[in-house]
């Protein structure tokens, strides 16, 4: 299992715009992939940590993204889901690499909140995506650590550093 990528005191994960397509009330689930979902499979995993690199169990993480073709589901909860970190502050999401839509590079939207802490809204980006260079809000601090694991499947890590709660 991966180890946290964190050196205390760690800078907070940067916030980023929510965009127009967030829908509250996503289902609790760790896989956004449905049978027959096209695209490159992505396993995204990592930790939610505080600025001292201490893991935050029970943190809420809500993901939403386009499908592989760059479309949001704005009538249902396709490619949307939330989960809570486990005892070691770890999360794991099964999804697909998001596609492109006009004006944006590939990105995964996410909200993260420690129990009793403030809500962070941000986005994760895909290293090596050419459209990153023309995206006006791209931030390299939000790049996933991505590896191809064969057969069009990818594994990525991103550790969120957020303000702790009570
Ligand atoms: Fe978006």
Percentage beta strand: 25-35%
Rg measurement, Å: 15 Å
Number of DSSP helices? 0
> Mean of residue pLDDT?
95
Residues in helix, %: under 10%
Give a short account of the largest sheet: 5 strands, mixed
Description:
The structure is a single chain. This protein is mainly beta and 166 residues long. 0% of the residues lie in helices and 33% in strands. The protein has strands spanning 41-49, 60-65, 80-84, 90-96, 107-113, 119-125, 145-150, 153-157, 160-161. The strands form 2 sheets. Strands 1, 4, 7, 8 and 9 form a 5-stranded mixed beta sheet that branches. It has a 4-stranded antiparallel beta sheet with strand order 3-2-5-6, with no helix packed on it. The model has no long low-confidence stretch (mean pLDDT 95). Bound molecules: fe (iii) ion. The site of fe (iii) ion has 5 residues, from strand 5.
């Amino acid at each position: 299992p991966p180890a946290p990528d964190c050196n205390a005191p760690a800078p907070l994960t940067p916030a980023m715009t929510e965009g127009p397509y967030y829908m509250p009330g996503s289902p609790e689930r760790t896989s956004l992939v449905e049978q027959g979902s096209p695209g490159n499979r992505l396993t995204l995993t990592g930790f939610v940590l505080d600025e001292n690199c201490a893991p935050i169990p029970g943190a809420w993480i809500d993901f939403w993204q386009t499908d592989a073709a760059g479309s949001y589901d704005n009538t249902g909860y396709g490619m949307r889901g939330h989960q809570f970190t486990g005892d070691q502050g770890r999360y794991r999401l099964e999804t697909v690499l998001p596609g492109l839509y006009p004006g944006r590079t590939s990105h995964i939207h996410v909200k993260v909140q420690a129990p009793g802490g403030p809500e962070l809204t941000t986005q994760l980006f895909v290293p090596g995506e050419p459209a990153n260079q023309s995206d006006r809000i791209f931030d390299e601090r939000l790049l996933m650590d991505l590896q191809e694991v064969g057969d069009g499947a990818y594994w990525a890590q991103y550790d969120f550093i957020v303000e702790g709660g009570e």
